[in-house]
Amino acid sequence: MNRLFALIRREYWENKGAFRTTPLVIGGIYIAFLLMSIFTTAHFDNEMYTFREAIRLLAEQPTEFRSTHGLEVLLGSSLFFTIVLAFVVFFYLLGALYDDRKDRSILFWKSLPASDTLTIASKLLTAMFLAPLMFWIVIVLTQIIMAIIASLMVISVGENPWTLFLSVINPFEAWSMLLVSYLASSIWFLPMYGWLLLVSSFAPRIPLLFAVLPPVVFAILQVWIRFLETFTFNASLFGLIGKWVANSPAILTVQVHDGEGTLALGGPLTDDFDHAVSLMNILDRLFSVQMLGGLIVAAVFLAGALWFRHRATES
Predict the structure, then answer these.
(1) Residue 314's pLDDT is what?
(2) pTM for the full predicted model
């Protein structure tokens, strides 16, 4: 276990730019845009009249309204973090086993008292847990700083931020839901993580090409053959991957009910699962037949990655 933790620490220090600096930059952008909007408003809004009116109208809303919408604001502000996290994990896994062969350091790492199984496990756990956790911590810190700035703005116009939003919004509910969503998404996307590690373990060069081109070619052939058989475009690998992403437990999109939009898990394009943001809907995905099939596929890909890792050399 100590060796596994040491390997995970190694992954962090070798990729701290992606895992630490990237979310910090995003958080800094959020705060910078908030400050820019405040200064712009102060410049054009004579004596903050419009801002005062907005605060007054917000204070007139029921407590339940402010609580519900405040929770959605906290969850919704994580969307850009989530998208960037997906790209970070994608490219990290794509180079996780390839970079050791590219810079010819694989024999050095193989000489250490750590098996190939531990090495792959450390990279997988880094993508599944360490990266999401780092992004989540920065999201929480960013929202705390933004809440402080917003509170100072409210105080500056003579209102009480505690009664307006601080006491009616439960940030721990939003933060815990977001963390559970991130960790559940890591499990849900295990088949794709396994595929990226498999490609990273054998690609001679340009792993991105090997990761994307075979599925695209296979899906196109599927569509073509099915079209020749039935003259209709039935489901293909494109549809399978799209459906898998749409059923994700990650908070990604908005669904509309009775003319009102609310945040949704994945994309509300399928009826396989309920897309409302709730703990039960997240767990429903993890304990489903689809998840069981995904774990089997992931196990096959990871076994292939381990097989190639065993036989990897400097060349």
Answers:
(1) 46
(2) 0.89
